[in-house]
Specification:
single chain, 567 residues, alpha+beta, OB fold (Dihydrolipoamide Acetyltransferase, E2P), 5-stranded antiparallel beta sheet, 8 helices, 38% strand, rod-shaped
């Protein structure tokens, strides 16, 4: 809507204010005037000149096109032209404001005063700020620390220090960092003057690292180490905090000279280990979460700051747990029994196997000595085989309990993993959790008959079954071998039995020893010759008594010659 108000009344009132005489004005001068009329294109202003000045209406409009003045309002304007071609006085409100802003900026620069402005755009190297005119804010001067996302600051209003000013070139450079540094320096001095160990302060989390958080205490940063954040286990500070969080902390250590501050959070919270022994008595069943695994066990969190260790030996009564990961995983909820509490060293020992009954306490009732059992071969060693009777219960058949008569060098000669075997329970050791089995005990001991059958001094004949460094083995019957030691192979010394015998050679020997406990029969080939010589001597002695003319040497020589002819 167009508003007009022209006439002597308006001019008269203005003349009364500024004086009745006409004033003279220079181009570029700022003058005060009163709005006389308003239309769609022009606003008429009286500044006390011989003619009224004209200003474009848009200079008084908002972005929405609304005129911000009314008839009678006082305004400051710039005299652009005293009289143009049409004899009119041309004025400008916008240019007047711009000149005033530059004057204010110049004064602020000279007096090192801060100016207010709004960040309006992202430009190369920094930001554009509107402080009445456009000014440049370099990225390095935005904050005390580098700002990665400058676009996030658009639209923010803040205070700035003018660090460069050139009115002629229209160049203005701002710094927000300079103001922050000055402010921070004052805060630092105040904080350092009042800081002391044991003090509890408010702070703001400034930065997070793998090892802790830096807290702004007011001009000075303190380190809150990850180990001082919580009585419980923390893998990374970000689990508890974010940059910008407000927090209360305790000053643990303060080095005024180095301006270093160590902070603690858990120290202003109750220590969970106080009276832990009363809260977790021995024998108590607990539930907790697996928070860590090591080669020797699993750590269970009972409450924040309280963890107990389940050693691998306490995970199962029957299984040989090589690593806790075979039984539990991080994050699992488990049940355990408290075995021991050491408040001084902050340790709690837990057991998972104690939740169930120990099968070794009833093993004798289930498998009395003499019981025949059956199971699969689970493992083979050089000293025997382990036979699985049930989950976690293995019995050992020692190599000496495999056969009554055969010399088993290694159990793998007779068995493979997975074979099903029968055995007899020989012995149970509950304390050491050992179970002894025997296979040969399934059959009667044949050595009672062997001892009667192969009496000492009797002569046997059989093939060589094996030649070893210390002698030869001779087969007496199926499953029964006798050993002729090297010293019993011949009248003379024998260094290498293989020089005299090979497998399959027939051998005649005397039984010199039978040991049923060890399952061994000792033989002697040399004794056969000795026996023949003793028999020959007896015969010679008998002939000597009937013939005095023949010498003893002649008779012995004749007897030995006869034996050689027979062989």
């Amino acid at each position: 809507m167009t508003e007009t108000n022209t006439g002597s009344a308006a001019s008269g009132s203005f003349a009364a204010m500024f004086g009745s005489s006409e004033r003279t004005f220079k181009e570029g001068e700022i003058a005060k005037g009163r709005v006389l009329s308003i239309d769609d294109e022009w606003i008429q202003v009286d500044i006390g000149f011989k003619s009224e000045g004209m200003i474009a209406a848009w200079e008084f409009m908002t972005e929405e096109g609304v005129v911000t003045v009314k008839v009678g309002d006082e305004v400051e304007v710039l005299v652009e032209e005293v009289e143009n071609e049409d004899g009119q006085l041309i004025l400008s409100k916008e240019k007047a404001e711009r000149l005033q802003v530059w004057d204010e900026i110049s004064n602020a620069f000279d007096q090192e005063r801060a100016v207010e402005g709004t960040i309006v755009a992202r430009v190369k190297g920094g930001l554009s700020v509107d402080i009445g005119v456009k000014a440049f804010l370099p990225g390095s001067q935005v904050d005390l620390r580098p700002v990665r996302n400058l676009e996030a600051l658009l639209g923010e209003r803040a205070s700035f220090k003018i660090i460069k000013f050139n009115k002629r070139r229209g160049n203005i450079v701002l710094s927000r960092r300079a103001l922050l540094e000055t402010e921070r320096k004052k805060m630092r001095e105040t904080t350092l003057g009042s800081l002391s160990e044991g003090q509890i302060l408010d702070g703001v989390i400034k930065n997070l690292t793998d090892y802790g958080a830096f807290i702004d205490l007011g001009g000075i940063d303190g380190l809150l180490h990850i180990t001082d954040m919580s009585w419980g286990r923390i893998n990374h500070p970000s689990e508890l905090f974010q940059v910008g969080d407000e927090i209360k902390v305790k000053v643990l250590k303060f080095d005024a000279e180095a301006e270093r501050v160590s902070l603690g959070l858990k120290q202003i919270q109750p220590d969970p280990w106080i009276d832990a022994g009363m809260r977790y008595p021995i024998g108590m069943r607990i539930h907790g979460k697996v928070v860590s695994l090591t080669d020797y066990g699993a750590f269970i969190e009972l409450e924040p700051g309280i963890e107990g260790l389940v050693h691998v030996s306490e995970m199962s009564w029957t299984k040989r747990v090589k690593h806790p990961s075979k039984v539990v995983s991080i994050g699992d909820q488990v049940e355990a029994v408290v075995l021991d509490v050491d408040e001084r060293d902050r340790k709690i020992s837990l057991g998972m196997k104690q939740i169930e009954e120990n099968p070794w306490t009833v093993i004798e009732e289930r498998y009395p000595v003499g019981t025949r059992v059956s199971g699969q071969v689970r493992n083979i060693t050089n000293f025997g085989i382990f036979v699985g009777l049930e989950e976690g219960i293995d019995g050992l058949v020692h190599v000496s309990d495999i056969s009554w008569t055969e010399q088993v060098k290694h159990p793998s000669e007779r068995f493979e993993k997975g074979d099903t075997v029968e055995a007899v329970v020989l012995k149970i050791d509950k304390e050491n959790e050992k179970f002894s089995l025997g296979i040969k005990q399934l059959l009667p001991n044949p050595w009672d008959d062997i001892q009667r059958k192969y009496k000492v001094g009797s002569e046997i004949t059989g093939p060589v079954t094996s030649v070893v460094d210390f002698g030869v083995f001779v087969r007496l019957e199926d499953g029964i071998d006798g050993l002729v030691y090297s010293s019993e192979l011949a009248p003379q010394r024998v260094d290498n039995p293989a020089d005299l015998f090979k497998v399959g050679d027939p051998v005649t020997a005397l039984v010199v020893k039978v040991d049923p406990n060890e399952g061994k029969i000792s033989l002697s080939i040399r004794a056969v010759s000795d026996k023949a010589e003793r028999a020959a001597l007896k015969e010679i002695a008998a002939q000597q008594s009937s013939s005095q003319t023949t010498t003893l040497g002649d008779l012995l020589a004749e007897k030995l010659a006869a034996q050689k002819r027979e062989n």
